[in-house]
Amino acid sequence: MSRKPVITGAGLGLRRSFIDELSADFPTSISFMEVAPENWIDVGGRFAVALEKATSQAPLVCHGLSLNLGGLAPIDEAFVHRVKHFLETFCVAHYSEHLSYCGDEGHLYDLMPIPFTPAAITHVVDRIKRVQDILGRSIAVENVSYYAAPGKSMSEIEFLNTVLEQADCQLLLDVNNVYVNSVNHKYDPEEFLKALPGQRIAYGHIAGHYNEADDLLVDTHGADVVDPVWLLLEKAYNHFGAFPTLLERDFNIPSIADLLVEVDQIHSIQSKFTASQELRV
After folding, report:
1. In 10 A of CB 180, how many CB atoms?
2. 66-86 pLDDT, tens digit each
3. Of 18, 31, 188, 246, whose CB neighbour count within 10 A is largest?
4. Cα–Cα separations (whole angstroms), residue 72 to 96, 163, 193, 227, 279
């Protein structure tokens, strides 16, 4: 198996709507790309050709949609083995999933919150460890947006940090989710960031959201990144260093040129901290 690449810089979520354009003239500003393996496993034809061409230009990471880490149904181990083959075929740097559940007797087509309880920690940690055993690698779990916390007996940050430590897994730090949750659940987003284990950050996400009300934001990945989220990303870099960060856009997808404006914004913020580090060396 080929050695996993090290990702750096600013990435872009790869979508079928623009993969042909991207493959034809790959922008140098895209340092890495991300796909959901569920959407690409066993894909053939022109999309398979375009994926191979795009991944020859920049490293790939995978962000899963259906592992169902918090669910009660048994882990679909056959699916995990298929994911393993995909990761090895494309020399994928990181495989991440949502710290949530998305299925029971069938797929729920949504990301539901895991109760913040000790019992839920034990449950999800066992499932993460089983996935890691099958894959033969550590996975990253993403801090998710949530709109209710049923059965909560501890804080979000305590739950997340305990899962990361007990499962000995990595963190996919979604900065927009931190901001959305801080508004919806009324906490200080910067204090939340500072409480995270920076050494476990594999890479980060940044995205747009929808303002339902002053006190209700909805994580949609369907709009431009707003200024408070850019500022929070800068604060995250100030605390942890400029970790690799990927732009997510799933709906209302604009032109490649418009997406690259935001990718370049990530690079611009990262450069402040790269330059500062170089000056200290």
Report:
1. 25
2. 899 988 889 999 999 999 999
3. 246
4. 20, 17, 30, 39, 51
What is the token pair recorded at 232?
């929070």
- Whole-angstrom distance, CA of residue 56 vs CA of residue 136: 24
Q: Given its phi and psi angles, is residue 212 left (phi above 0), alpha (psi -120 to 50 degrees) or beta?
A: alpha
| Superfamily of structural domain 10-280 | Divalent-metal-dependent TIM barrel enzymes (3.20.20.150)
What is the pLDDT at residue 103?
A: 45
* pTM, entire model: 0.93
Q: Which residues of the chain have pLDDT under 70?
A: 1-3, 101-112, 275-281
Among 169, 173, 166, smallest CA distance to 204 is for 173
Q: Which residues contact 203 (CB under 8 A, 6 or more apart)?
A: 7, 11, 32, 61, 94, 140, 172, 173, 243, 244, 245, 246
The pair phi, psi for residue 175, each rounded to 5°, is -70, -35
Count of all residues that appear for the chain in the document: 281
